[in-house]
Amino acid sequence: MCTGIPLQVIQNDGLRALCGDSQDEQWVDMQLVGPQEEGTWVLVFLGAAREVVSANRAKNIADALKALTQVMNGTLEYDQSLFADLNDREPELPEHLKSQLNPVNSTTR
C-alpha cells in the first residue's frame, strides 16, 4: 500500500524541492506537478509529488494519518478533530453502487 504524505515546499530547486512537515524534511521530485512556490502543499508518494493540495486538505490528510498511526500502535482515543472533514456528514456511496440500493420491482405470481 502506498500512502501519500502532505509536505510543504520549503525550497524550490526546479524539478525538485526541499519539502517538509513538523517532523521531517526531504528532497521531492516535482516533475509531475511542476515547480511550486515556497509554502505550497503537495501530496508525496514514494519521493515524488503527485498532487498540489490546499493547506486545509493537507491538514485533514495529516490528521487521518496521525489517527491511523495511533490505531496501529493501540493508543487511539477517539478524537473527532482527527476526522474533521467527516464529522456531521452522512456517508455517501460511489455512483456505481447507488443503483444497487433501489430494490428491483418484482411482481407476485
Automatic annotation (TrEMBL):
GO biological process terms held by the UniProt record: protein maturation
InterPro entries: Hydrogenase_HupF/HypC
Domain of life: Bacteria
Organism per entry: Alteromonas confluentis
Protein family per UniProt: Belongs to the HupF/HypC family.
MF terms (GO), sorted A to Z: carbon dioxide binding; iron ion binding
Record lineage: Bacteria, Pseudomonadati, Pseudomonadota, Gammaproteobacteria, Alteromonadales
Protein name: Uncharacterized protein
PANTHER family (alphabetical): HYDROGENASE MATURATION FACTOR HYBG, HYDROGENASE MATURATION FACTOR HYPC
